[in-house]
Structure formats: structure tokens, C-alpha cells
Amino acid sequence: MMIWFTIGGCAAFCFLQWLIRKIPVWKYSSKYVVITGCDSGFGHLLAKRLDHMDFHVFAGCITEKGATELRKTCSNRLFTLDLDVTSAASIQKAVKLVKSNIPQDSGIWGLVNNAGIAGETGHVEWLTRADYDQVMAVNTFGVVDVTKAFLPLVRKTRGRIVNMASVMGRFPAATAHYVMSKFAVEGYSGVLRYQLRPFGVSVHVIEPGFFQTGITSNELIRKSLENKYARLEPEIQEAYGKEYRDAIITRATHFLQLANSPKVHKVVDAYTHALTARFPKTRYSVGWDANLFFRPLSLLPDWVADLMFGAFLSKPNSK
Q1: Which residues 6+ apart lie within 8 Å of 267 measured at CB?
Q2: Which residues participate in catalysis according to the annotation?
Q3: CA 161, CA 154: separation in Å to the nearest integer?
Q4: What is the pLDDT of residues 201-238, one digit of tens each?
Q5: Which GO biological process annotations does it have (predicted)?
């Protein structure tokens, strides 16, 4: 009897939580949202969706092509920003443009730190300091700098900050610089959430698995691995061997064919819920691989996770 009572209680709790998550905020047409990385991918799709939902959108783009595409397909509520998240001058210029295009003494409801890059693909020994600097500049310090610049505007509305992390911020199954950048976003977002709670500002993290976007292209990864290997010192090349290089290209290709989901709208759904739900989630793990593979691996003892994930890896020439 106690077992059924417990099961019923858990089911009721889950249903109530699901129901509460469905309650929306109101008056989208009076809310302003800033999004970075809107040239393509998730940011581009989110900007379009929010525009169609009557939000006022400031879409940060680093290319004129991306900005032009948004202006052609969206309403005049959408305003494009020439925004490079690695440039302090560009960020400050964007803040000034946003302030001049919102009602006086008001703020923005949402800041979405979506901009991100994968960088070169390769093993730790194959990467240079410049590789780390490039990825961290966008994925981590871009989030930090953009958040600091726009935070006063978010605080005015008791709004929300939504940061793009990754399930790789839970389990280190990608290149070192990318994993580091996403673990850092997770940590930063946690501290930010605690410290902004007294101001009524909430912080949310999106943790996607693998989706069919430009940064998970098989061809891009293949070329990156080949180029990285070709530039290695002969001693390091010999330690790994061309067979190993070819093997990891093959395994990476096969894995992406299995894991890469075409349902990119699920990530946009998560972003949208974080911005529109009255009681949004703190974290949104998105994708079958994130929820059924990487998150469970992250909860296992290290030695078990090492054995399971290690089964997917090839062995280099070195004994």
C-alpha cells in the first residue's frame, strides 16, 4: 500500500510541476530581448520566433548576410545589432543602440547569450594556446562581458538571462577547449543565479546535445583533424600515427551521424520556454543524447564512465 501511495504522490508532483511550467508571462509585445549570435543556427531561429510572438528583438549579428536575412523575414519590431562579443567597443556600442531604441527609463526582459564556436578539432596535444584563446573568447568571456554590459537593463525589469552551455559542460566528451568553455559557462551561470536572485533576476542554462548545425558538420570536423595533424611536430605525429587520425575521423563521423538531431527547434523551444514561462527551469538539457547518454554518464563513478566512453575511442601508436 505504501508503495502505491508513494508512486501516486510522485506522479501527482510531476503532473503539478508540468502544469505550473505551462503558465506563461504576459504582454510579449511590451518586452525587449537581446540575443547574440543570430547570423545562423539557434540564435537566428530564436530571433525569428520571438519576432513572430510579438517580442521586440535586438538580434546581434557579426555578418551583414545574417542581419540582412533577418530584416527581410521579420517585422520592424526586430532590430539588428552589429555585435562582436569578443570586442568591448562593439558590446558598448550595442548597449547604446539598445538604450536608444527602448522606452526611456525601461530595460530589457531577456538577454540570451547564444553566440558560440566549436573551434579547431583535435587532441589536447594537438591544440595550441591560440586555439584555447579563440574558443574561450567567444564561448566564455563573451558571455561574461555581454552579461556585465547589459545587466543594468535586465535588472530594471527583473528579467532573465539565458546562457548557452552544452551537455559537454557536464561530461567532457569533446575537444578540451570547447569543454572548458562550457564547464566555465555552467559555473559562471550558477554564481550569477545566486547573486542576482535578490534583484529578482533569474538565470537559465541551455544544455544541448548534438544537433545539425554548422559547428557539427562532418566535413568541417574531418578537415580540422587533418589540418591539425598535418601541422604537428614529427615526434607527435609518430606518437599518434595516421591510422589513429583516420580512425578518430571515422568514429567521429559515425557518432555524429547517429547523434546529430535535425530537430533544432527543440533548442529554440527551450530558449522560448526560459523566456516566456512564469516558472521556467534552471537548466534545459535538450536532445536524446544529452538526456539518455551524456547526463547519465556524468552521474556515474569516474571509472565506470571512463570504461564506457573509452570503448568508443581508438588507441594511438604509443604503447
Answers
A1: 42, 206, 208, 211, 286, 287
A2: 178
A3: 8
A4: 999 999 999 998 877 777 888 888 889 999 999 999 99
A5: steroid metabolic process
